[in-house]
């Protein structure tokens, strides 16, 4: 039936009132899908809680590690995450919380995606955007920058809060020192990418528990497991593991066996892109 | 308008929808009927592109669903399973859908009011009763002011007032020239709302008919006539299109003539009748007879169960 004829017949109805703006302007666009995903993200309590936990952990662990630092007892603040270790510096202490915050932020990404499959919301989402891919891009484009900005602010706060505790120590640094801002921002970029990684895993596996297990496995367990490889292989491959490449992004001093910050960023972003590509294929090819 | 052509869906070696063709026309309510597991929900999921057909195709207003610029304006859907995040409020849920199409907030408020959800719009959907969930589903189906409204078991969980509301709503949507499709496994309920019937079983088309035709055919249960002069009445009524059977000396079961015609013949020839009763078959019985061979989970007759026990 021609749309105009239908429109005319629809005039003056009581059951479904005529929309006051012209439906002719209804159209799905990338920006609108982004707006929708933005609203969806902030309208869930779990988003606020998980995001809050990530920032809280980042700031708290960093501040505690810095304020309890003493040059004799090395690396007391929590388990030796990436960046902590033998020769601490003020930045690595401030970023002690990254290894925990990455889980919170990764879970946030997983929930944003796999949570829709668990609840059935995905059917509403994909019925509204049947081309599907814009939904994946929009989810990544919402969570990535949100996590990046908040994690960068968290890293800055952790560093600033830790500075008084290191006052007078040999390793004390200030924000203006060489590489400090780059490292702190690097932590933000890394965590932003981890959130996107979580979205990709969530869409790929469609199951929150499975995707969280995969996230933990890839970021935390894989490097340890890989040490079972022959030494020569391990030395060659380990800098390219997702979490090792990622920690190179926010390390103040480039370790001898690690990538440069730029190379680390490129490699980790490559892993995220790979996961996103897998998620895109699964999203388009498989029934919702 | 929805046009399904030789639609087929297989999961592994199980064929859920089998070579199904039907049309849902504007201005009509089409009832989509079948026993549980007949493939109704799968068919509806294929219509809105959630599932891809193994073979065949289905178009919505002439195009496959995903090719529309504003899909929610073409067809509004309520799918059987809950398709809502329980942690979000009804208003936020509808806003999220509205944003994708640039549908203004005013329209969201309109459908919330239409569905009678104004007082609970700010509540988390997880706390909703089944009936409120259905109302929210219907609100989201109407959000885009769609030309087609497709509802999977819309009256599930609704109270009698809600059932009547849905019935009137669907009727008025169809009267406005929209195409309405609703699925159900209850014939009697559907016959009250629908004009057209598409009946399926085990994924195959069993009947594509109108409610009027279906009712007429279902009414073909014959007329019971009780008279002392059975032999005379038999010969008076005899015709090629009339069949007459008898179960007792004074009783005839006549098919091919309705009660009015039999009564007229009897009076013209002075045959006294003691009883003249149309043997109407209920719609539900007719539906069950039609789908009897294809129900997925058949209950054993009561007496065999007793023997087994």
TrEMBL record, chain A:
The chain crosses the membrane at residues 48-70, 90-115, 136-159, 179-204, 211-229, 263-284. The keyword Protein biosynthesis does not apply. The keyword Cytoplasm does not apply. This is ABC transporter permease. Keywords: Membrane, Transmembrane, Transmembrane helix. It comes from Streptomyces phaeofaciens. Residues 1-21 are annotated as: Disordered. Residues 1-11 have a biased composition (Basic residues).
UniProtKB/TrEMBL annotation, chain B:
CDD domains: ABC_BcrA_bacitracin_resist (cd03268). Keywords: ATP-binding, Nucleotide-binding, Transport. SUPFAM superfamilies: P-loop containing nucleoside triphosphate hydrolases. It comes from the Bacteria. GO terms for molecular function: ATP binding; ATP hydrolysis activity. Residues 2-227 form the ABC transporter domain. PROSITE patterns: ABC_TRANSPORTER_2. InterPro entries: AAA+_ATPase (IPR003593), ABC_transporter-like_ATP-bd (IPR003439), P-loop_NTPase (IPR027417). Belongs to the ABC transporter superfamily. This is ABC transporter ATP-binding protein.
């Amino acid at each position: 039936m021609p749309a105009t004829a239908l429109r005319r017949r629809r005039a003056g109805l009581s059951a479904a009132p005529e929309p006051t703006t012209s439906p002719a302007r209804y159209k799905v666009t990338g920006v609108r899908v982004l707006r929708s995903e933005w609203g969806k993200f902030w309208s869930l309590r779990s988003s606020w809680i998980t995001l809050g936990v990530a920032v809280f952990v980042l700031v708290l662990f960093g501040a505690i590690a810095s304020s309890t630092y003493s040059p004799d007892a090395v690396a007391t603040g929590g388990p030796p995450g990436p960046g902590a270790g033998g020769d601490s510096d003020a930045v690595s202490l401030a970023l002690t919380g990254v290894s925990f915050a990455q889980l919170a932020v990764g879970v946030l990404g997983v929930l944003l995606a796999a949570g829709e499959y668990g609840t059935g919301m995905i059917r509403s989402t994909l019925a509204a955007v049947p081309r599907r891919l814009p939904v994946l891009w929009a989810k990544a484009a919402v969570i990535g920058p949100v996590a990046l900005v908040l994690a960068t602010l968290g890293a800055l706060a952790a560093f600033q809060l830790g500075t008084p505790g290191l006052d007078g120590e040999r390793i004390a640094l200030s924000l203006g020192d060489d590489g400090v801002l780059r490292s702190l921002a690097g932590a933000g970029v890394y965590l932003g990418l981890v959130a996107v990684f979580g979205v990709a895993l969530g869409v790929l596996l469609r199951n929150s528990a499975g995707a969280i297990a995969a996230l933990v496995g890839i970021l935390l367990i894989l490097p340890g497991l890989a040490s079972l490889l022959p030494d020569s292989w391990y030395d060659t491959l380990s800098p390219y593991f997702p979490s090792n490449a990622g920690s190179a992004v926010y390390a103040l001093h480039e370790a001898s066996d690690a990538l440069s910050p730029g190379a680390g960023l490129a490699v980790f972003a490559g892993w995220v892109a790979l996961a996103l590509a897998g998620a895109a294929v699964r999203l388009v090819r498989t029934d919702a | 308008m929805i046009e399904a052509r030789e639609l087929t869906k297989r999961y592994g070696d199980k064929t859920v929808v089998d070579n199904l063709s039907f049309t849902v026309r504007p201005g009509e309510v089409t009832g989509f009927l079948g026993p549980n597991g007949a493939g109704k929900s799968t068919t509806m999921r294929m219509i809105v592109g959630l599932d891809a057909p193994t073979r065949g195709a289905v178009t919505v207003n002439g195009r496959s669903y995903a090719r529309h610029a504003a899909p929610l304006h073409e067809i509004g859907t309520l799918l059987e399973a809950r398709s809502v995040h329980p942690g979000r409020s009804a208003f936020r849920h509808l806003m999220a859908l509205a944003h994708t199409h640039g549908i203004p907030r005013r329209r969201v408020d309109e459908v919330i009011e239409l569905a009678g959800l104004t007082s609970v719009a700010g509540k988390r959907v997880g706390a909703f009763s089944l009936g409120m969930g259905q109302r929210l589903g219907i609100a989201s189906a109407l959000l885009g002011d769609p030309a087609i409204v497709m509802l999977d078991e819309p009256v599930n969980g609704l109270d009698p007032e809600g059932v009547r509301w849905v019935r009137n709503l669907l009727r008025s949507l169809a009267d406005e020239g929209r195409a309405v499709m609703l699925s159900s496994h209850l014939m009697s309920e559907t016959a009250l709302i629908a004009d057209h019937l598409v009946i399926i079983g085990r994924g195959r088309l069993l009947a594509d008919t109108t409610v009027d035709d279906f009712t007429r055919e279902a009414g073909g249960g014959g007329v019971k006539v009780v008279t002392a002069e059975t032999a005379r009445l038999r010969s008076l009524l005899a015709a090629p299109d009339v069949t007459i059977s008898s179960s007792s000396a004074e009783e005839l079961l006549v098919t091919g003539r309705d009660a009015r015609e039999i009564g007229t013949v009897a009076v013209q020839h002075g045959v006294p009748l003691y009883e003249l009763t149309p043997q109407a078959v209920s719609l539900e019985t007719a539906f069950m007879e039609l789908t009897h061979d294809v129900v997925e989970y058949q209950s054993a007759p009561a007496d065999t169960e007793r023997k087994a026990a």
